[in-house]
Design goal:
heterodimer; A: 169 residues; Arc Repressor Mutant, subunit A; 2 domains; globular; B: alpha+beta; Phosphorylase Kinase, domain 1; seven-stranded antiparallel beta sheet; 9 helices; 48% helix
Chain lengths: 169, 253
Amino acid sequence: MTFRADLTAEIPYLRRFARALTGDPALADDLVQDCVERALVKSHLYDPTRPLRAWLYAVLRNIHVSGLRRERRAGIVKTVDDLSDPEVMQRPSQEGETLFLQVTAALDRLPDQQREVVVLVALEEMSYRDVAEITGVPVGTVMSRLSRARSALRELIGEGAKPSLRRVK
Amino acid sequence: MTEPANNSEDWSLHAYADGEIAGQECRALDERLATDPEARAKVEAWRRQKSWLKEAFDPALDETVPPQIKAALRHRRGFSFSPAAIAAALALLLIGGAAGWFGSQQMNPPKAMEFADLAIEAHEIYSRESRHAVEVAANDSEHLTTWLSKRVGQKLVIPDLSARGYSFMGGRLLAAGDQPAAQFMYEDQAKRRITIFLTANAGGRESKFLVVEKQGVTACYWLDGPLGFVIAGETSRDDIVSLAHLVYQSFES
């Protein structure tokens, strides 16, 4: 029972991570739901000496990545219609919404591998070692992806006090 | 992966900005930042990126957890010891036992029950989906019936349940063990969903209507000639049985 309780406590963080990965609150919650289901089935694989959040992020990330692969094989491309049902998304303030859209659009332009690393490090404040475990690559690769992602984000949303999305290329 | 040479220096700046560096090395970088405006600008830009990410996504931390996730957290897999489940299992044993006792040739409960289990599982998984509940939507139902009839190997029809307030949403192909099955989904005004599960009944045997309740889902199932049927929903036994009659009739006609 305690695994379930610990898992419940992690839900807000899983939702934040999934939202940053997908840029779409409804899709993100579908992903969290899948992650919860899988985590409950696979709970025996969790090593309790390691942080639960990192393990859950790995589970969620793997579901997300395999979904992306499937979509690519099937040739599914995100369309405007796919982006959030307005009723599912709880409306933040006008200013918050603009920022959300700008940050999401900038993240959307990063390659998947860079996006997940910068989200895990900067937003989720995971250690490089945890990020390496979650994404299944060496720490050096994490750092080089992080460096690229941050340079790309500087290009994309600028240097000012507020993000301003630029059209690049 | 090749990196420009100056990136190794960059990496220690990243590690510094992310709190991965402590002690002496950290103090050395403090000093470097004090005298190197370019490095300072980088670290500041990264900190701004971080605060934008937080501002954009932190609201997710305070939002109410949606019911679909709460349900997934409550969900038990592989086993169920709720009193209702035990009662249902006992009831089935009694039905099965009675059937054996009367030497009925008509019943094939193990196969039918297997269908019911698969159907309940599929109901639980797909009826919770908000965006991907069905594979082919109701507006393309002609294609849906042709396709699923071909896969299941039997002529299927989409039962009309509107008399009981359920409108047809669409359907999907399922794997029922080693054979294909069809799932049709319906929804009422209160967004309650029921699903019909159809698969080939290889033995061609017939059974009565049987009812099972599992994890809050009530299912009525039966075998009728070439097809096995299961109708499942989070609703009362009476409701499910009367829906089952409608389904039965639409395949009779």
